[in-house]
Amino acid sequence: MKALALFALLACLVPGGRGMYYSRCQLAQTLEQLGLDGYMGYSLANWVCMAAHESSYNTQATNYNSWDGSTDFGIFQINSRYWCQNGDEYSSNICQIPCSDLLSNSLSADVECAKIIAQDSNGMSAWVAWTSYCQGQDLWQYVEGCGV
Fold first, then answer.
1. Can you tell me whether residue 24 is helix, strand or coil?
2. Residue 113 and residue 84 in contact, taking contact as beta carbons nearer than 8 Å
3. Residue 11 CB contacts under 8 Å (≥ 6 apart), including other chains
4. With left for phi above 0 and alpha for psi between -120 and 50, is residue 92 left, alpha or beta?
5. 56: which strand partners?
6. Residues annotated as part of the active site
7. pTM, whole model, 2 decimals?
8. Considering only CA atoms, which of 123, 97, 120, 119 is closest in space to residue 110?
9. DSSP 130
């Protein structure tokens, strides 16, 4: 019985094809290292809040949008209609990357594309979750105790 319980525990720890779920503080520290704290005037807490509501911190989150046939990818749910190339579907591909790059546990591509999006005239309002849950809110709890 103990061997079965140990096997079940180890199975949970072995990386699989489901991507990585960052913890809140792990994400805050990573995004700080990648230069998002204060980027375009948005605090680190804004980025962490947005990721919480877009993907629940899941690097391989995807969401198909039936209304226009596009898909949102990665921890920031970056849309294939405008920002990345998803196969042969139409895209402006403003970030000049394949959408699959946004599903990596390394967040480099996600952050570089997010920086391009934030430079747009809409800024972080490009993310509905940020507008709905983060904009104008007290967000200290998203970075509290994270050492950032």
1. helix
2. yes
3. none
4. alpha
5. none
6. 54, 72
7. 0.86
8. 97
9. I
Tell me which residue of 83, 27, 19, 18 sits closest to 53, measured CA to CA. 27
**Contact by Cβ (8 Å): 27, 51:** yes
pLDDT above 60 (res 14): no
3-state secondary structure of 143: coil
DSSP 67-84: TTTEEEETTTTEETTTTS
Long-range contacts of 108-116 (CB under 8 A, 24+ apart): 108/34, 110/59, 110/74, 110/75, 110/76, 110/78, 111/31, 111/34, 111/35, 111/36, 113/76, 113/78, 113/83, 113/84, 114/36, 114/47, 114/76, 114/78, 115/35, 115/36, 115/39, 115/40, 116/83
At position 129, the amino acid (one-letter code) is A
Token pair for residue 67? 């209304």
pLDDT tens-digit series, residues 60-103: 999 999 999 999 999 999 999 999 999 999 999 999 999 999 99
Map tokens 């949102």 to a residue: 72
Residues composing the chain: 148
Provide the token pair at 108: 């480099």
Q: Which tokens sit at 73?
A: 């990818």
